[in-house]
């Protein structure tokens, strides 16, 4: 029905528009506590994004199932049975089976988002403007947070309440403060927008930028330019070293390309971007020795978990409960404050290996290789850089596997790669 199709398209537009939000209802069963502390990463949460995607997803799933013939359904049955068997075995070896089951439900949702993008016959071009506008409003919040050095009160979008004086808030040292920004003893607040951490925000904006470049033919010119400027601005303000490095090198690549094809306007814009992106990176003290040593110890613990649970890991989502057995400890001195350090290892590959073992790593590598093969046939540089940004930032952070906005964006990216045609 045309009206049902229009409703599905509009709801998906809203889903993309509000993708940067993290408004949600948290629940706190006993297995969300580690060493007597409530851990946000473990809390089952019903997000606004779930609600916005549920209706178009339901319509899509019903239409797909009813359109498939019996032979098609039977063809996928062995794979489904194998995955269910692996799931049961992993749950049986998990430290907290209820936690793993909840995390698997999240990954099921992400897989359905991937299918929704990759299997749709047509997607009206105006729908992708939702992502552009979402990037823009998230940038506005980040800019004013940076300007005022505190949150703005947009709790309805999931913004948390904080200021530069909040204990444990992400700050960085800067020698020369930007004009109009007040800093405290050389420190400035790294903006969060509506995300859980500035690094998560930076990764989201970086990948969104490349994805929107790939979608530029489907976007109005003004909307495209606005969204690209917004994403670049936010990446710079967050001071996320990994994201900024990827941004600078990709800018250099596009700079060389613009010279090759004599695209003077693009050449000038990229030329201005490089020193601008370098400003916070060079003038700020982003390489904290304490942070570096803490992450090294997290990596060692993750490797030990993998050694002790090589086949199935400690259970999906169970790195933090397992980490509780290692700290506080004299062996891991920089992990002596559980309130701050009870979080996933800052490496998606070690996190995946420690939680899902060789089985999970094998499935991930299979998906990655298949995706890279598709990218090779597409010869689409923006999509390649988007995936590369995920893989590189994943070496130094965990948000692509643990935080909702990044998880969904990763699923959308993979879905679009699998859908795109050369």
Structure characterization notes:
The structure is a single chain. Helices cover 64% and strands 5% of the residues. Helix 7 (198-214) runs parallel beside helix 9. The chain has a three-stranded antiparallel β-sheet with strand order 6-5-7. It has a two-stranded antiparallel ribbon with strand order 1-4. Strands 2-3 form a two-stranded antiparallel sheet. It has 17 helices and seven strands. It is mainly alpha-helical and 422 residues long. The model has no long low-confidence stretch (mean pLDDT 82). The radius of gyration is 22 Å and the shape is globular.
In short:
With about 425 residues, this protein is mainly α. It has helices at about 1-15, 50-65, 70-75, 75-90, 95-120, 130-150, 200-215, 220-240, 240-260, 265-285, 290-310, 320-325, 340, 350-380, 380-395, 400, 405-420; strands at about 25, 35, 35-40, 45, 170-175, 185-190, 285.
Give the strand tally: 7
Overall shape: globular
* Spatial separation of the terminal alpha carbons: 31 Å
Helix proportion range: 55-70%
Note poorly predicted spans.
none
Overall pLDDT confidence: 82
Strand order in the largest sheet: 6-5-7
**How many separate helices?**
17
Radius of gyration: 22 Å
Secondary-structure content class: mainly alpha
Order of helices and strands: HEEEEHHHHHEEHHHHEHHHHHHH
Q: Beta-strand percentage?
A: under 5%
The biggest sheet amounts to: 3 strands, antiparallel
């Amino acid at each position: 029905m045309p009206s049902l199709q229009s409703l599905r398209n509009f709801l998906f537009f809203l889903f993309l528009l509000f993708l940067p939000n993290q408004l949600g209802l948290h629940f706190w069963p006993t297995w969300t506590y580690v060493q007597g502390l409530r851990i946000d990463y473990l809390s089952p949460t019903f997000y606004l994004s779930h609600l916005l995607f549920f209706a178009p997803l339901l319509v899509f799933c019903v239409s797909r199932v009813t359109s498939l013939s019996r032979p098609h359904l039977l063809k996928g049955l062995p794979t489904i049975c194998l995955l269910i068997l692996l799931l049961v075995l992993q749950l049986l070896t998990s430290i907290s089976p209820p936690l793993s089951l909840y995390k698997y439900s999240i990954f099921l949702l992400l897989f359905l988002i991937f299918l929704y993008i990759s299997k749709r016959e047509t997607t009206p071009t105006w729908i992708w403007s939702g992502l552009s506008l979402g990037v823009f409003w998230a940038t506005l919040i980040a800019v004013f947070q940076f300007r005022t050095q505190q949150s703005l009160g947009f709790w309805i979008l999931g913004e948390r309440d904080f200021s530069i004086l909040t204990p444990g808030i992400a700050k960085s040292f800067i020698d020369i403060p930007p004009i109009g920004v007040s800093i405290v003893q050389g420190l400035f607040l790294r903006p969060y927008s509506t995300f859980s951490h500035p690094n998560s925000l930076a990764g989201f904006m970086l990948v969104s930028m490349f994805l929107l470049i790939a979608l530029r033919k489907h976007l109005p010119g003004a909307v495209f330019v606005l969204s690209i400027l917004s994403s670049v601005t936010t990446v710079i303000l967050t001071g996320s070293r990994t994201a900024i490095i990827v941004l600078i090198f990709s800018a250099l690549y596009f700079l060389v390309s613009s010279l090759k094809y004599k695209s003077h306007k693009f050449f000038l814009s990229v030329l201005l971007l490089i020193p601008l992106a370098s400003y916070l990176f060079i003038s700020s003290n982003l390489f904290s020795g304490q942070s570096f040593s803490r992450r090294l110890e997290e990596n060692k613990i993750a490797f030990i978990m993998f050694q002790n649970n090589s086949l199935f890991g400690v259970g999906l989502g169970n790195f933090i409960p397992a980490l509780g057995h290692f700290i506080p400890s004299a062996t891991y001195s920089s992990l002596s404050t559980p309130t701050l350090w009870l979080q996933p290892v800052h490496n998606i590959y070690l996190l995946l290996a420690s939680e899902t073992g060789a089985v999970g790593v094998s499935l991930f590598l299979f998906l990655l290789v298949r995706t890279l093969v598709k990218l090779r046939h597409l010869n689409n540089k923006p999509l390649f850089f988007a995936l590369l940004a995920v893989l590189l930032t994943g070496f130094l952070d965990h948000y692509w596997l643990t935080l909702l906005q990044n998880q969904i964006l990763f699923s959308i990216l993979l879905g679009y790669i699998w859908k795109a045609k050369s």
